[in-house]
Amino acid sequence: MADPSGAAPRRRVGLFGGSFDPPHLAHVALARAAVEQLGLDTLHVLPTGQAWHKARSLSPAEHRLALARLAFDPVPRARVDARELRREGPTYTIDTLRELRREHPDAELVLVIGADQAEALHGWRDSAEIPRLATLAIAERARPSEGPVPFDASHVPGGTWESVELPPMPVSATAIRALVGAGEPIDTLVPEGVARYIDQHHLYRSP
Ligand SMILES: Nc1ncnc2c1ncn2[C@@H]1O[C@H](COP(=O)(O)OP(=O)(O)OP(=O)(O)O)[C@@H](O)[C@H]1O
Ligand SMILES: O=C(O)c1ccc[n+]([C@@H]2O[C@H](COP(=O)([O-])O)[C@@H](O)[C@H]2O)c1
């Protein structure tokens, strides 16, 4: 229905961040579902720079950026945004939200995350400010051996969110790295171009 005030609807600008080491089919499905279901005008796909919250060090930025482009360039309205890879120091989503708020002062920002990250969100830098800058959109995440992660909404700062419906896809980048290390195929788990790039650059062959 048209807004009776005649005001144009606010643009919805999405953010979807991750280590993407490597990006896999659940990431791509989540990005597509977010664009469609949330009515996003744009989705910034943000490979993480320095992941302060992960124990292992990530693959070099140039590889993760190339892999992200191969995976997400075909997703309508998604654009791979390298700002977190270029930023000095640890990556905090709040910094990216503040930048995008300045760049899109009239838009609604929508932060897209999997349920596992939503449950950890209270531990993120300046987590209480996040729901003031962005609407949260949360996708269920399947565990490899069980059903979807039961999502506990009490963890969401601010208490409100939208959901992104995704068929359970029990795939993780950790499992893909392990398969490559063991010489097993990964073609059913990642986009074709991603599998080819991993092979050509000998990524993930040793732990
Ligand atoms: N299978 C999945 N289903 C739903 N969401 C997912 C899935 N895999 C990753 N995500 C979400 O995508 C975002 C980026 O995830 P990330 O790049 O860390 O992938 P990952 O598979 O969890 O990696 P790793 O195994 O290295 O921790 C996070 O918000 C995460 O919750
Ligand atoms: O801002 C933080 O403190 C923060 C803490 C943990 C994770 N994040 C972001 O959450 C996104 C998903 O993280 P991950 O670990 O699933 O790759 C990615 O964009 C990270 O930068 C952000």
UniProtKB/TrEMBL annotation:
Pathway: Cofactor biosynthesis; NAD(+) biosynthesis; deamido-NAD(+) from nicotinate D-ribonucleotide: step 1/1. One of its GO terms (molecular function) is nicotinate-nucleotide adenylyltransferase activity. The keyword Cell wall biogenesis/degradation does not apply. Keywords: ATP-binding, NAD, Nucleotide-binding, Nucleotidyltransferase, Pyridine nucleotide biosynthesis, Transferase. It catalyses: nicotinate beta-D-ribonucleotide + ATP + H(+) = deamido-NAD(+) + diphosphate. Its EC number is 2.7.7.18. The keyword Acyltransferase does not apply. InterPro entries: Cyt_trans-like, NadD/NMNAT, Rossmann-like_a/b/a_fold. GO terms for biological process: NAD+ biosynthetic process. Residues 15-178 form the Cytidyltransferase-like domain. HAMAP family: NaMN_adenylyltr (MF_00244). Catalyzes the reversible adenylation of nicotinate mononucleotide (NaMN) to nicotinic acid adenine dinucleotide (NaAD). NCBIfam families: cyt_tran_rel, nicotinate (nicotinamide) nucleotide adenylyltransferase, PRK00071.1-3. Belongs to the NadD family. This is Probable nicotinate-nucleotide adenylyltransferase.
